[in-house]
Write a structure and sequence with these properties.
This is ScyD/ScyE family protein. The protein has 373 residues and is mainly β. It contains four helices and 28 strands. The chain has one domain: Neuraminidase (6 Propeller). Strand 24 and strand 25 form a beta hairpin.
Length: 373
């Protein structure tokens, strides 16, 4: 089924994106990013602890620990489309996500969570099989909200390859993972939901993220090359959750990158939700991010959001969004133990730039870097 969603792809395909690099500021920025590795391709997710920094590099198909020379000491190699990584709460297990994509059709043919424990014991949970059997968002309406759109609207969207109306189809892209109780919670960007994976590897639906409505303005319609009859039409896009973190309050915090063109064409539509894990109910915390691919929770209640297409990390304080630091190509962000942030940036083709891991502080360095010798 053709669906107007932002395609989160892994590996070389995403590396072909030509991301804009903002001009350098004449002033020293504070907070200050410091590159600790320039050997990454697509560091989609990080896990930071006092022991080490774990990286899921989807471009290299490697899950590993950051070494002092900037390389990755492999935990697992040949992991197609790996994008999420997390440690268990006791630090004894490591979990990562993988997705196999047929790039000729942009169809995900396999997706799941792998957990490796002591003595190398490995458990794999097949999220695509779960999605095929249950399809939790099957009852969610996407597309034009008007049940009787005009013939002009219907014809225009159909000609543009945009479905007029549909319900959630079968798709799984296990994108991010966080330790949760004695198991895990997975943000499935294909299924538009959060999945709970228990200690035995069993998969359960935790929450379905809501559709993301956008009312088409004249500027949007013109940019998409659609006729004026589409102006004022409200379209429900898919949520596409990209990251999940467990808050100090026990709630889950989720970044979403809505379907459709995630670019200035339709505006900055990414959002952060707070999800009650007991009920699955979600509450919007903030909206207005351009390519919200990852988030991190600060020590004082603030939320940091990686905006891939905005080229920056933003911070949410008391529901208000502001730029925290400009960081071209940022795709991942994670909080450190000493109040610092860690971030991953994508390798870029034009202009050429390596993928990096950076440490962001308020203008000064302190503490020991948690990297492997």
């Amino acid at each position: 089924m053709t669906r107007p969603r932002a395609v989160l792809v892994s590996g070389a395909a995403l590396l072909l994106l030509a991301l804009p690099l903002p001009a350098a500021s004449a002033h020293r920025a504070s907070p200050t990013p410091r590159v600790v590795s320039d050997q990454m391709l697509a560091p989609f997710n990080l896990d930071v602890s006092s022991r080490s920094i774990l990286v899921a590099d989807g471009g290299a198909e490697v899950v590993g620990a950051l070494a002092r020379d900037g390389s990755l000491t492999p935990i697992a190699t040949d992991q197609p489309g790996t994008s999420g990584v997390a440690r268990s709460r006791d630090g004894r297990r490591v979990a990562w996500t993988t997705t196999v994509t047929d790039f000729s059709t942009f169809t995900n043919t396999a997706s799941g969570l792998t957990v490796r424990g002591p003595r190398g014991r490995t458990v794999h949970s097949d999220t695509l099989a779960y999605e095929t059997a249950h399809n939790p968002d099957a009852g969610v309406h996407y597309g034009v909200t008007d049940p009787n759109p005009s013939a002009c609207v219907t014809d225009a969207l159909t000609a543009a390859g945009i479905p007029v109306a549909y319900t959630g189809g079968v798709d799984s892209h296990a994108y991010s993972v966080a330790a949760y109780r004695d198991g895990w919670v997975v943000a499935d960007a294909g299924a538009n939901d959060l999945l709970r994976v228990d200690s035995r590897g069993q998969v359960h639906t935790l929450a379905v993220l809501p559709a993301q409505p956008t009312t088409m303005t004249a500027a949007m319609v013109g940019a998409l090359g659609l006729p004026d009859c589409v102006i004022g039409v409200t379209y429900d896009f898919e949520a596409v959750p990209t990251d999940v973190e467990v808050g100090h309050d026990g709630a889950l915090y989720v970044s979403v990158l809505p379907g459709g063109p995630e670019s200035p064409v339709l505006g900055a539509r990414g959002a952060v939700y707070r999800v009650d894990p007991r009920t699955g109910a979600s509450h919007e915390v903030a909206r207005g991010f351009l390519g919200a691919t990852n988030l991190a929770l600060g020590h004082d209640g603030e939320i940091y959001v990686a905006e891939l297409f905005g080229g920056k990390v933003s911070v949410v304080r008391h529901g208000r969004i502001s730029t925290y630091v400009e960081l071209p190509g940022v795709v991942a962000v994670e909080s450190g133990r000493e109040g610092e942030l860690w971030a991953g940036t994508m390798a870029n083709e034009d202009p050429a730039a390596p993928g990096t891991i950076v440490r962001i502080t308020g203008g000064h360095e302190h503490g020991r870097l948690p990297v492997h010798d």
